[in-house]
From TrEMBL:
Residues 370-384 have a biased composition (Basic and acidic residues). The lineage of its organism: Eukaryota, Metazoa, Spiralia, Lophotrochozoa, Mollusca. Residues 21-52 have a biased composition (Polar residues). Residues 399-409, 425-435 have a biased composition (Gly residues). InterPro entries: Transposase_22. PANTHER family: L1 TRANSPOSABLE ELEMENT-RELATED. Residues 1-52, 354-435 are annotated as: Disordered. This is Uncharacterized protein. Residues 410-424 have a biased composition (Basic residues). Gene3D superfamilies: L1 transposable element, RRM domain.
Length: 435
């Protein structure tokens, strides 16, 4: 109903506009036809489209001064008319046109289509405006991109120049590397020969070190170290100078009274180390005869057992360090009732040389270690080894080397453990020290 009312109102409005614009219902202009009658000339409207559509040809009505002529002279009549003639004039009765509403509906539909097209045109205009704005933004962005591309081209040119420079440098480096490789190959060959020479020199050095240790051991072969012998206090002579102790007389008296051995002669006798208040420095003696030295050494077990005195042999530092490593095994073998003895830096248990590389040396507890001042030859041999190696008097040289020929069992070339570049300068290095 609302749609019908809207169309009806719209139709009335359109009819009003057409009347004002002198148009018919279909929107066509009304043509006026001049008619000549007895009353005079006058014009009547003629709708050509209506006549053409219906196929009817309406004669121009004659106007009379009758009641029918009181209406508008230009009133339009549609369809077929029954013309009645009479003495009062022409009476035209209007005929209902059946297709007027359908034509109006068609016109409304066309107008709706036109409105829809106009709306679409407005939408297209809006979209075109947006597209124009986007195009403007794109142009601005394209301009900035163009500038960026120009700067990028400049950067690429710079990078290309640097690349060419680096390329030439790399070529030069490759050539240098080739030269270095060839030189390295030459040096590698030379290095191999140097390694061989160094290996030979190292073997020769080991051999010389072994010979040096052997010479040290030979020079100390006639030496014995006595510990526990009391040291007389230092006295001053008449002139106020210190009076040195006659160490040889003290040792001779000790051998005669304590060990009941007389007639022993010495090359040199002196004490080791610097004087220390309250301590007796060890005495080192170089015997003239090796037989006398052996007599004194062997009688120590019988004469010095249970006393504060002790006697030990003197060895180079390398040999003495090796004996220290084997000493726990030596004591363990003794406690087990086995026959154990040292020959230079070698340990023999029941006549078989002990090889510590195949077996782990036994660990001795603190209770198994004997006190230092227990007995003569049974006191701690490790402490006597320190004394024998000259540790109490490292700043003073030991007794000068012995005879040129070795006595007893052949040569003792036992090499001690390597100690880097050290020459193993222990006591008895072949130099004579001052007392």
């Amino acid at each position: 109903m609302k749609s019908a009312n809207g169309k009806s109102k719209k139709k009335v409005e359109n009819d009003r506009k057409r009347k004002v614009q002198n148009q018919n219902v279909s929107g066509e202009s009304v043509n006026k036809v001049k008619v000549t009658t007895d009353q005079g000339d006058f014009s009547i409207p003629r709708l050509s489209s209506m006549n053409s559509d219906t196929g009817l040809s309406l004669p121009a009505p004659q106007m009379y001064n009758g009641p029918i002529n009181q209406s508008t002279p230009n009133q339009l009549h549609y369809g077929q008319q029954n013309v009645l003639t009479g003495s009062a004039g022409i009476y035209a009765s209007p005929v209902m046109q059946t297709d007027v509403n359908s034509r109006l509906d068609a016109i409304c539909r066309k107008l709706d289509g036109v409105s829809e097209q106009l709306r679409k045109l407005d939408l297209m205009e809006h979209r075109l405006n947006g597209l124009e704005n986007a195009t403007s933004a794109f142009k601005a962005e394209f301009g900035s991109m163009k500038k960026g591309i120009a700067e990028l081209e400049k950067s690429m040119c710079f990078i290309n120049e640097k690349f060419e420079t680096n390329k030439s440098e790399i070529v030069g480096l490759k050539r240098s590397l080739t030269n270095v490789e060839s030189r390295t190959d030459e040096l590698f060959g030379s290095g191999q020969s140097l390694c061989d020479e160094i290996s030979g020199l190292r073997d020769e050095l080991d051999d010389l070190r072994g010979r040096h240790i052997d010479l040290q051991a030979r020079s100390m072969r006639d030496n014995l170290i006595f510990t526990g012998i009391s040291e007389s206090p230092r006295r001053l002579d008449d002139n106020g100078g210190p009076v040195s102790e006659d160490t040889e007389a003290v040792l001779t008296n000790f051998l005669a009274t304590t060990m009941e051995i007389e007639g022993v002669t010495f090359h040199r006798v002196h004490r080791l180390g610097r004087p220390t208040p309250g301590k007796n420095r060890p005495v080192i003696a170089k015997f003239v005869l090796f037989k006398d030295r052996e007599i004194v050494r062997k009688s120590a077990r019988d004469k010095l057992t249970g006393t504060e005195f002790g006697i030990s042999e003197q060895f180079p530092k390398e040999i003495n360090d090796r004996r220290k490593e084997l000493y726990p095994t030596y004591k363990m073998a003794k406690r087990q009732g086995k026959r154990a003895n040292f020959v230079m830096d070698k340990l023999y248990i029941d006549g078989v040389r002990y090889d510590d590389s195949r077996s782990e040396p036994p660990r001795m507890s603190q209770r198994q270690v004997e006190p230092l001042h227990r007995t003569g030859t049974d006191r701690d041999d490790a402490q006597r080894m320190d004394v024998a190696s000259g540790s109490p008097n490292r700043d003073r040289g030991p007794i000068r080397g012995g005879r040129g020929t070795a006595r007893g069992r052949g040569t003792a070339r036992g090499r001690g453990p390597r100690t880097g570049r050290g020459r193993g300068r222990g006591a008895g290095a072949g130099t004579m020290g001052r007392r």
